[in-house]
Write a structure and sequence with these properties.
single chain; 12 helices; 24 strands; alpha+beta; MoCF_Sase_C
């Protein structure tokens, strides 16, 4: 160090490569820890959430109970009974990444927080004038989008943050609002892009990549928020149904539309809890259920059940290649994933009860097994990178799983569920139950199924 100080005082430091190297290393040794502890980058809007909220969900670790651990099991172990709940998933934003849970509340519309939002694009065969008649305007409207058209939706990560009572008490704050954080890969050009790249690596590790984020309230907005944030009630089409929902497009960024590759106008809709879609085809009637079955932005029914042994059986029928080395159950976007039963055994069920420990009836969840899940090509999209496979598993589904006469030429995998709740006579006591990982499946009724088209 004395030699360095002497060289600096004499003005000869720039002539000695060794001195320069030591000087640079000394500066870096001081700056790098300082940058890591006190990063000179603006915090993200969501960073403050960690002070009062906790993130909901299981981390993707094979050491924990859940889907990843089960998918590594041999087939004979996978199908060994009794049947149990292995994994639970919600998808707060339709077609975006899901969140794995260890428990969830069951509502008439499905698992709590599931499919609250959907993206939509404005579709029209031609421009519409302001003075156009109603018939012309009816062909100009919002239609939901999914990974079927825009596979990059798979790369939109979703986090659910809920108030943490201990954290709030420690800070002396009362916080009730929950939030969703949507993140997608995005890097600006030029210096700003370089800065975002450095910030990502510094703040979140060497494997991190630059991202943009969108922060959304989970609770349905108040009338005041709707007015202040310029939200609007508009019609959006889900398959052949049209529902009135809240257009919250003012929360979106142009970067997201460009990332997804949507050329039409892009919108984000929030389902209105007072305007849920009523479910009829194949679902129990309101007289049988004790309430009118409903759903949010799910495709057709409130919940989707999947048997991991059935996924494994289909996987064994697919020719593997470098783009599809194994069939991940996440491709099928189920809410409840089971182990402990043979392939396709679930298709024989008509009603089931999930029991907390296999004996006690104090904590149970009941479901009508309403119909098979008819598959489109969306499972061809890899949930890890948003890349669509040219052929599989759609080809295998159509070849080996064309099993429902109500949906000829289509493959089926999984079952659609309608929640059932405890009743006294014809009156439902409470429209709520709980499901947890490890609950045992008790089959209450068997029967056949035939899919009913819209």
């Amino acid at each position: 160090m004395d030699d360095i100080l002497l060289a600096l005082s004499n003005g000869d430091w720039h002539r000695d490569p060794g001195t320069i190297s030591i000087l640079l290393l000394t500066v870096l040794a001081f700056l790098v820890p300082m940058i890591y502890v006190y990063p000179p980058f603006p915090p993200r809007e969501s960073d403050a959430l960690a002070e009062t909220h906790s993130k909901v969900g299981l981390e993707p670790s094979a050491a924990k109970p859940g889907l990843r651990a089960a998918q590594a099991l041999p087939s004979d172990v996978l199908s060994a009974g009794p049947p149990r709940v292995q994994s639970l998933w919600i998808y707060p934003v339709k077609s975006c990444a899901g969140i794995e849970l260890d428990h969830s509340t069951v509502l008439p519309s499905g698992l709590e927080f599931d499919r609250l939002f959907t993206f939509a694009q404005l579709k029209s065969p031609f421009p519409v004038r302001l003075d156009s008649d109603a018939d012309e305007k009816s062909r100009h409207g919002w239609e939901f989008i999914t990974q079927r058209q825009f596979p990059a939706l798979a790369n939109v990560q979703v986090e659910l943050w809920r108030p943490d009572r201990v954290k709030c008490e420690r800070r002396g704050e009362k916080v009730r609002e929950s939030y969703l954080i949507l993140r997608f890969p995005w890097m600006e050009e030029g210096f700003r892009g370089t800065l975002s790249w450095v910030a990502a690596k510094t703040l979140r590790g060497i494997d991190a990549r630059p991202e943009k984020e969108i922060m959304l309230p989970v609770e349905f907005p108040s009338e005041a928020d709707i007015k202040n944030k310029d939200y609007k009630y508009e019609s959006v089409k889900i398959w052949k149904e049209t529902v009135t929902a809240l257009n919250m497009s003012s929360e979106l960024s142009d970067e997201l539309q460009r990332y997804l590759g949507v050329s039409n106008k892009l919108a984000l809709f929030r389902i209105d809890p007072d305007k849920l879609r009523e479910v009829y085809r194949g679902a129990p009637t309101s007289e049988v259920a004790g309430y009118q079955p409903v759903t949010g932005f799910q495709d057709a029914f409130p919940l989707h059940l999947l048997n991991l042994s059935s996924v494994r059986d289909l996987n064994d029928k697919i020719a593997q290649d470098e783009n599809l080395k194994t069939l991940d159950a996440r491709r099928f976007r189920a809410n409840i994933i089971l182990t402990g039963l043979p392939p396709y055994e679930e298709e024989k069920w008509k009603s089931i009860q999930l029991v907390s420990d296999g004996k006690s009836l104090e904590e149970t969840a009941d479901f009508d097994v309403s119909c098979r899940t008819v598959r489109c090509k969306m499972p061809n999209v890899n949930p890890d990178n948003g890349i669509r496979h040219d052929k599989e598993p759609d080809h295998a589904l159509r070849k080996y799983r064309n099993v429902d006469e109500g949906a000829p030429l289509n493959g089926c995998l999984g079952m659609q569920l309608t929640p059932m709740f405890k009743k006294t006579g014809s009156r439902v006591l409470e429209l709520e139950s709980t499901v947890k990982i490890g609950m045992e499946v008790k089959v209450k009724g068997f029967g056949s199924h035939k899919y009913i088209k819209q």
